[in-house]
């Protein structure tokens, strides 16, 4: 997908000056409120939507290819809005990703890869060690690596779904994040039970620091609608 997504971004960028310098003055002179650059972008995005609608059913049950498609679409959307000033009221790829069959697959794949990431972060040798253990002024909370990586994982998921067009879809992703928080809590509890005989031991203290850090960050995020 990156081939045709990149091609469209190149066309938008390469035609911007011509549209602004040559076409827009004609529209302005005619008293039209149309923005030539945005209309050009909108027409090309409609082609993308047609292409995605044809591609997605073929990729739906190949996790690697489907995940790659979603990643590329999210990168495309980010550049479309931040670099080319595309309007949120216009049709976008997020509408295609929000369609029921595609969206449910996206949620499933997102959960699968998140759980795999949690498995690897907790089985890592550095799971209970702080990345900043040697820098005193940065490491006041003594946050173990697994807790920091987990919160980064949640933040990345938020970044991926925040531009979905409807609140109901965003809430379904929030539900996934709540499941992951509860799953992480259960994993911490399991590790803690193994450490109860050494409640002042290194790992037991690291678990308490992890819980404190996660609670603090979630409280900080409470103002983020």
TrEMBL record:
GO terms for cellular component: Dsl1/NZR complex. One of its GO terms (biological process) is retrograde vesicle-mediated transport, Golgi to endoplasmic reticulum. It comes from the Eukaryota. InterPro entries: RINT1_Tip20. PANTHER family: RAD50-INTERACTING PROTEIN 1 (PTHR13520:SF0), RAD50-INTERACTING PROTEIN 1 RINT-1 (PTHR13520). This is RINT1 protein. It comes from Smutsornis africanus. The lineage of its organism: Eukaryota, Metazoa, Chordata, Craniata, Vertebrata.
């Amino acid at each position: 997908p990156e081939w045709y997504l990149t091609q469209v971004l190149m066309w938008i960028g390469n035609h911007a000056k011509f549209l602004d310098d040559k076409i827009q003055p004609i529209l302005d002179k005619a008293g039209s409120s149309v923005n030539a650059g945005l209309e050009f972008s909108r027409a090309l995005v409609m082609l993308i939507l047609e292409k995605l609608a044809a591609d997605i059913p073929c990729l739906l049950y190949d996790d690697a290819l489907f995940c790659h498609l979603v990643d590329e679409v999210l990168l495309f959307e980010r550049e479309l809005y931040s670099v080319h000033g595309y309007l949120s009221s216009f049709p976008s790829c997020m509408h295609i990703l929000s369609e029921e069959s595609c969206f449910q697959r996206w949620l499933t794949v997102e959960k699968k890869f998140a759980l795999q990431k949690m498995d690897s972060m907790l089985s890592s040798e550095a799971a209970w060690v702080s990345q900043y253990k040697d820098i005193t002024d940065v490491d006041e909370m003594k946050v173990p690596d697994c807790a920091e990586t987990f919160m980064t994982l949640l933040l990345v998921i938020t970044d991926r779904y925040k531009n979905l067009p409807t609140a109901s879809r965003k809430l379904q992703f929030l539900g996934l994040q709540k499941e992951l928080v509860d799953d992480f809590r259960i994993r911490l509890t399991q590790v803690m039970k193994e450490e109860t005989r050494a409640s002042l031991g290194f790992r037991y203290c690291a678990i308490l620091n992890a819980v404190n850090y996660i609670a603090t960050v979630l409280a900080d995020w409470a103002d983020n609608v």
